[in-house]
């Protein structure tokens, strides 16, 4: 089974297990959530469900609109029943690295407003500990502060921070939906690394907007497997 199919079966199962009528649903960002929204749209039509969808990015907003779902906003719907989102890595305790697509800030805000955060992913994202497989932790920063933040994190914890650049040689830095830059922190943790403590310290550095470390936020994860099964953890 292809990775795309693995994403699809995970997202479909998560939507089928957690979505019922009259919910406010957080819609994550990335390639896996595309299948989740597809499934939501199918079920809204076939079961006449009443769902309000809160986006985590410009991409998510477009997905909601393109699939004919009802677009909500945190101003009106500050409490989200279930948020469904992808991840770049998810460890045994459901701690995640997110932000590979640069949407970590709004993803974390939506996740923090959700009673339940569900992760959907293919099997390559399932790991024992953070940075076991995915070697970079995205950090969203205020543009003027990216060099001091890079220097501070490297001197505190080691590793190497690189400013995320656009696709072509001529392109400048990637700018997030919130007008910020992303620093990718290339860092090799271990099973005993205290990512919770590290996250708290990084969040104290002026100019850091948020990190892609989602510690203790997810309640459940679904991973699509090569054999067509879905593992839940
Ligand atoms: C975007 C994210 C995505 O959820 C994460 O990168 C996973 O994406 P995909 O579903 O394409 O593997 O955090 O900022």
TrEMBL record:
One GO molecular-function entry: ribose-5-phosphate isomerase activity
Catalytic activity: aldehydo-D-ribose 5-phosphate = D-ribulose 5-phosphate
UniProt pathway: Carbohydrate degradation; pentose phosphate pathway; D-ribose 5-phosphate from D-ribulose 5-phosphate (non-oxidative stage): step 1/1
Enzyme class label: isomerase
GO biological process: D-ribose metabolic process; pentose-phosphate shunt, non-oxidative branch
GO cellular component: cytoplasm
Keywords: Isomerase
Alphabetized Pfam families for the sequence: Rib_5-P_isom_A
SUPFAM superfamilies found in the cross-reference section: D-ribose-5-phosphate isomerase (RpiA), lid domain (SSF75445), NagB/RpiA/CoA transferase-like (SSF100950)
Similarity comment text for this entry: Belongs to the ribose 5-phosphate isomerase family.
This protein's name: Ribose-5-phosphate isomerase
């Amino acid at each position: 089974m292809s990775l795309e199919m693995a994403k699809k079966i995970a997202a479909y199962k998560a939507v089928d297990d957690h979505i019922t009528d009259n919910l406010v649903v957080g819609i994550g960002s990335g390639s896996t959530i595309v299948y989740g929204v597809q499934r939501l749209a199918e079920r809204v039509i076939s079961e006449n469900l009443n769902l309000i969808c809160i986006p985590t990015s410009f991409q998510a907003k477009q997905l909601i609109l393109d699939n004919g779902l009802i677009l909500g906003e945190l101003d009106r719907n500050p409490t989200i029943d279930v948020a469904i989102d992808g991840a770049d890595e998810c460890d045994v305790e459901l701690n995640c690295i997110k932000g590979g697509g640069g949407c970590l800030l709004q993803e974390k805000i939506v996740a923090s407003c959700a009673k339940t955060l569900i992760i959907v992913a293919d099997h390559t994202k399932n790991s024992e500990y953070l940075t076991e497989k995915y070697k970079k932790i995205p950090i969203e920063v205020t543009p003027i502060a990216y060099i001091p933040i890079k220097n501070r994190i490297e001197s505190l914890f080691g590793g190497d921070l690189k400013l995320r650049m656009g696709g072509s040689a001529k392109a400048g830095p990637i700018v997030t939906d919130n007008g910020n830059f992303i620093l990718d922190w290339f860092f090799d943790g271990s099973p005993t690394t205290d990512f919770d403590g590290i996250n708290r310290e990084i969040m104290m550095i002026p100019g850091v907007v948020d990190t892609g470390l989602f510690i203790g936020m997810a309640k459940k994860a679904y991973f699509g497997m090569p054999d067509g099964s879905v593992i839940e953890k």
